[in-house]
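Researcher: We're teaching a course module on how sequence relates to structure. For the next exercise, students receive a sequence and then see the predicted structure as C-alpha cells, so they can try to spot secondary structure elements on their own. Here is the exercise chain.
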Amino acid sequence: MSRPAHSSAAPAAPSPHRLHEDAAALVIGVTMVSLGLVLYGEARLVTSGLAGLALLLGYATPLNSGTLLFTLNIPFLLYGLRRMGWRVLARTVVAIAGIALLTRFSPVVLGIAHLSPPYAALMGGILMGMGALALVRHRTGLGGISLVAMDLQERRGWRAGYVQLVFDLLVMFSALFVLDLGQVGLSLFGAVVLNLVLALNHKPGRYLGVS
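Model: And here is the predicted structure for the students to work with:
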C-alpha cells in the first residue's frame, strides 16, 4: 500500500493590502486603542510605553493624557524616521494623532457612570492589544520607545525587548508615587493581557498580508 505523497506546494505569496483595507485597519486599530486608554483613564490605571507615561502624567498634572501622548511621541517619531520611512511614518503619525484626539474628546461622546477597575484592566488590555495588532499588521506603529529600542539593538547589540521592559518597569515604578498599590497591580495585570494578545497573534509567517 503506497503512502500518500507529502505536499510540496510552495507557501502562498504575501497578498498586498488595498488602500481601503489599510484605511479600515487604521480606523479600527485607533478606535480600539483609544477606547482601551479611556477605560484605563477612568479607572486610573497605567499601561506600557509612552501611552502609560502619558496617562501617569495626566493623573499628576492638569494636562490631558491625549495631548500628552501626541507631544511625547514627537521626538521619538523624528528619531525613528530613518527606520520607518515616510509611508510608515505618515500612517504612524495619523494613528497617534487619532488616538490622542479620540482620547482627548471622549467625554463628549462617552459617559461612564460606573466602571469596575478589574474589568477596565482586562478589557482595556484586550482592546489595546487587538488595536495594536490591527495596526502593526498594516505596517502602522504607535511610535514611542520601541523605535529607540530597535535602533539600540542594531547599533549597540542591546536586546530591544529588554530596553522596552526597562522603560515599562520605570513607568510602573513611577506609578507607585501617584497611584495606590491596587491600581498598580491591576495595571501590571492589564499589561500582561495586552502583551499576551500580541504574543499569541503576532507571529512570523502567521499573517501574510503586506502594506
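Model: If you want an answer key for the exercise: The chain has a mean pLDDT of 84. The chain is about 70% helix and 0% strand.
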